[in-house]
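Lecture notes, part 5. Sequence design as translation. It can be helpful to think of inverse folding as translation between two languages: the language of shapes and the language of residues. The source text, in structure tokens, appears below.
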């Protein structure tokens, strides 16, 4: 009876996978792309240490590895289908299933590093890599994910192109970088992704980001202009006007020349770094807040919450910036505060909601971990712009199916991970990744 139930569940899961891939295949533009698309996605969902083209080809068709490799490689590295259209199809299928467990509450911005050897893979440079936790030779991609308490899904993915790459015509041509891709900071890339999500009418949530994005005043201002609330990390050196203080009004007209419209500062009217403000607070300003259940009980820490005005270059403005929340975390046992956020959530927001919202970024780490470990995001061995983004979009498509399946089953059951059994590799198979010759 148990065996029959398991077999029935697996058949049902296979049927849902077929339905999902059929729906996504319609976004590819040509019928002859359907077979390599299905094969690539199934290859990403199968077991296997490496999910680059050649090992997947060997698992999918052990007797025809070379032909399968050529088919998959052409589809991912050369075929001209649209990443944007495919990701739209993924979210049309997956987001409603996530919303069965509650509305979308957050838009999470982050970036992920993919360590690389050599200098020829598109966008590779020595830069901070989150996967290794240090400056390393890597590619970095900016993503936007939709999230609620149950699940999250990446809906946009763009490789960050360092200035050295953006301004090098020879490297651009070799990597096939489109002419309209210029150097942009990561916050600028993220803001474009968010603007596109707004234009597409995606269900809105509070924008969450770490200090690499939140410390950028233009990023925060752009979110407000789009009508979005945020809870974003900032650096300890970020300056604000303490409660009850602010810049001086413009100088009164002198009767000569054009009257000044800019706010002023003097020795007695200066903003303060958020760290200095936090250290000056009395003990009564700090409270313990629990924001969600963890594996060993509720997660809690010590916080201060204040209404402040950001001060960045406000002497060039005619009006003070609006008040918003400053949230500071100072865990017991630490010598000084450890984290800071600014948030435009309403002034009446309860502390538990404000803290819980700001702490919601943890879900993106789960996305990245599973995109890499389950779907092989960091396994692509090609070097060009199109292939990198096609592989990433296909990984998100595979991951999207896992997310959709989890909307139907308890967390401890993962039927999507065992939809198909991997065939055995040929005894003499050796991936080029194991040697000195990377795949093209």
């Amino acid at each position: 009876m148990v065996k029959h139930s398991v077999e029935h569940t697996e058949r049902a899961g296979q049927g849902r996978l077929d339905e999902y891939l059929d729906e996504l295949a319609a976004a590819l533009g040509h019928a002859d792309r359907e077979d390599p698309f299905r094969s690539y996605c199934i290859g990403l969902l199968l077991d296997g240490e490496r999910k680059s083209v050649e090992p997947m080809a060997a698992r999918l068709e052990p007797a025809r590895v070379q032909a399968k490799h050529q088919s998959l490689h052409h589809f991912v590295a050369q075929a001209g289908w649209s990443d944007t259209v495919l990701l739209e199809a993924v979210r049309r299928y997956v987001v409603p299933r996530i919303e069965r467990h509650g509305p979308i509450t957050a838009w999470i911005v982050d970036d992920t590093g993919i360590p690389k050897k050599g200098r020829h893979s598109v966008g590779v440079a020595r830069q901070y890599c989150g996967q290794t936790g240090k400056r390393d030779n890597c590619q970095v991609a900016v993503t936007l994910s939709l999230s609620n308490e149950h699940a999250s899904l990446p809906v946009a993915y763009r490789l960050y192109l360092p200035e050295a790459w953006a301004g090098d015509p020879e490297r651009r041509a070799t990597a096939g970088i489109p002419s309209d891709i210029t150097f942009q900071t990561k916050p600028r890339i993220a803001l474009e992704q968010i603007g596109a999500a707004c234009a597409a009418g995606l269900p809105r949530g509070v924008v969450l980001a770490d200090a690499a994005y939140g410390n950028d005043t233009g990023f925060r201002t752009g979110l407000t202009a789009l009508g979005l609330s945020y809870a974003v990390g900032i650096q300890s050196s970020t300056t604000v006007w303490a409660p009850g203080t602010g810049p001086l009004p413009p100088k009164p007209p002198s009767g000569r020349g054009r009257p000044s419209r800019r706010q002023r500062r003097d020795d007695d009217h200066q903003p303060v770094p958020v760290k200095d403000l936090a250290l000056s607070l009395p003990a009564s300003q700090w409270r313990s807040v629990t924001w969600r259940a963890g594996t060993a009980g509720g997660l809690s820490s010590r916080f201060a919450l204040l209404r402040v005005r950001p001060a960045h270059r406000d002497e060039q403005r005619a009006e003070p910036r609006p008040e918003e929340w400053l949230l500071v975390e100072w865990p017991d046992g630490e010598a000084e505060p450890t984290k800071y956020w600014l948030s435009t959530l309403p002034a009446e927001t309860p502390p538990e909601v404000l803290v819980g919202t700001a702490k919601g970024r943890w879900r993106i780490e789960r996305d990245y971990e599973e995109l890499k470990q389950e779907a092989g995001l960091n396994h692509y061995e090609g070097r060009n712009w199109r292939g990198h983004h096609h592989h990433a979009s296909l990984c998100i498509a595979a991951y999207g199916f896992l997310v959709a399946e989890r909307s139907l089953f308890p967390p401890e059951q993962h039927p999507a991970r065992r939809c198909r059994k991997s065939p055995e590799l040929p005894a003499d198979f050796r991936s080029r990744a194991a040697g000195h010759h990377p795949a093209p």
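The translated text above is only one of many valid answers, since several sequences can fold into similar shapes. The radius of gyration is 25 Å.
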